[in-house]
Amino acid sequence: MNAITAPRIDDSQARLEKLAELSRHLLAKARAQGASQAEVSCSEETGLNVNVRMGEVETVESTRDRGIGVTVYFGKRKGSASTADLREESLEATVAQACAIARYTEDDDASGLADAGLMATEFPDLDTWHPWPLEADEAIDMAMACEAAGRADARIANSDGASVGSGESLSVYANSHGFIGRERETQHSLGCAFIAGQGDGMQRDGWYTIGLSRDELEDPAAVGRRGAERTIARLQPRNVATGEYPVLFSAEMARSLIGHLLGAVSGGALYRRASFLLDQAGKQIFPDWFSIEELPHLRRGLRSAAFDAEGVATRRSSLVENGVLQRYLLGSYSARKLGLQTTANAGGVHNLQVKANAGDLDSLLSGMGRGLLVTELMGQGVNGVTGDYSRGAGGFWIENGEIAYPVDGITVAGNLKNVFTDIQAVGSDVDPRSHVRTGSILVGRMTVAGAE
């Protein structure tokens, strides 16, 4: 007889309220010790992760983490401390430590909470909470099915394994303006990696799927088969002659280009004068059809939020419109350093959407004719100050608008200012596995260093 498992009770709202009460308690302690302002972050995370390899279980890991951070301000002096211990004496010591640090730091005119008038007052349901009562046995079965589907192809020589994960996160941010913000989110994943070929000809690749809800994940067997297909497609790579060619970044690689933009327009890089896009707000840095919009209230978005890490209300807004950089990415500290106002990006961006002006990947390849499709990038050869870009790459050589053969051991180089202005197309083939939602990006010409 099979045991009947009692349905799981969702107590997330009650747990959030406990975190909110804890935050109020810590803020009161900070005020009692003389802090002029204070902020508290409390979080709880739980998860299950399973890894299998070659048909055997490697790891089964259940996690339960807690974090409490306290920041206090004495005028313009700041101190922070953290703990995971809920005992009263530990909480007392954490607040005391933060206050002691603040008393011995130098004044910083940019420090302090975000302005009270900017705090979020509306908290829509963004559909980010989809618990999955995943048991270890079910997770193991899914990972096994994923790996088995990939290994069913005789050309797969080895496996780096398959994994299944499910996690829940509860968090509360509160400050002495009276703001208390609650967030809860789930995230689930399934992935695999395989090895094909022998000796120096071995190639590795894979596939993964993620979602806030279990029903957003791809079928395990389909993930395994796709991972195997991607690995096999890389076998017997060739080199290419060094030269300047059109370069098409696949959707999952294209978002790294957007990531370099985000780093260059972030407040920290700007006030340190360490960005190749200094003083570029209001100027054209992309083609006049190119646009990026931030959508923080997107339902079931991977980075949806009603407020940022400082409690500032988020809102839909353009980052780039018609090729023109509309604004920077600022929290209150960097905004004060620059004499500007926060853009509600303390903690990062919330669901960027890059506007497409072209069709799917096949249509982009057809339009490119001859050049390089990049499906892998390696190394960190990007200079954020000058914009110089040089990274190891792999992918496929394109002839007559079709994939001719895989390529490996090459370098793609240029300057990001030129790369941005030379973007020819953004595809409709959006990779949904990131909060930066973009299709493949075609750059008109970059230096490709291969065989001489």
Automatic annotation (TrEMBL):
This is Peptidase PmbA. GO terms for cellular component: cytosol. One of its GO terms (molecular function) is metallopeptidase activity. It comes from Pseudoxanthomonas dokdonensis. InterPro entries: Metalloprtase-TldD/E_C, Metalloprtase-TldD/E_cen_dom, Metalloprtase-TldD/E_N, PmbA, TldD/PmbA_N, TldD/PmbA_sf. NCBIfam families: PRK11040.1. Belongs to the peptidase U62 family. It comes from the Bacteria. GO terms for biological process: proteolysis.
